[in-house]
Amino acid sequence: MQKLKLQYRTWDEKERIIHLGPGEHRIGRIADNDVVIDELAVSEHHCVITIDHNGNSIADADSMHGTFLDGAFVQSSPLKPGQTLNLGTLMISVMEDKAVTEQDVSSQRSESLPLKDGSYSCLKHQNQRAGFECPSCHFLFCNSCLPSESESPLCPQCGAGADVIDWSGIEMTPRDAALDLMPDNLKKAWGYWQKWKAHRDE
After folding, report:
1. Start and end residues for every CATH 2.60.200.20 domain found in the chain
2. Which stretches of the chain score pLDDT less than 50?
3. Which residues contact 68 (CB under 8 A, 6 or more apart)?
4. Span 2-94: which CATH code?
5. Helices in the chain by DSSP H: which ranges?
6. Pairing of strands 72-73, 67-69
7. What is the dihedral of CA 17, 23, 29, 33, to 10 degrees?
């Protein structure tokens, strides 16, 4: 059964990707929807996308600004990858989601493993260091997980923008790590003491 992904940009130009599997997906601006898109162009309950053995379809849910496919207003219509969906003025690209497979779902349930260098692995590729963390669902992933069409690191699990993980601290010695946690005034005092000690030992 075909799966879909919806890709769009928010009002502040952040890229978002929504993965849709089999079933009925209610889309709108408020929290009781299956898919929440917090954009002013989107109605509280805007439309419903259905994916089942009969194919993919979309139905408008009496939205205020209308549902459009390739520029034409639709009340109910088949939905195919490659089409452009507009919820009011919000433009969404409809694509086939080839990335979401049963193997991926199984991998997403895996644990992040500690690596020899002190860092932690990607959840899907456990021999690779995790380079990104999703602030929304806390999914850890590596460069290999990034969608090829993405211009910024997006979570492959939920589509939210991800943060780069800074592993520079693992290269510190325990002594350096302890010093790094000191307040600035104590660091300065430690520096003076080190200079005094070095001068005394000369």
Report:
1. 2-94
2. 100-109
3. 74, 85, 86
4. 2.60.200.20
5. 102-108, 174-180, 184-201
6. antiparallel
7. -130
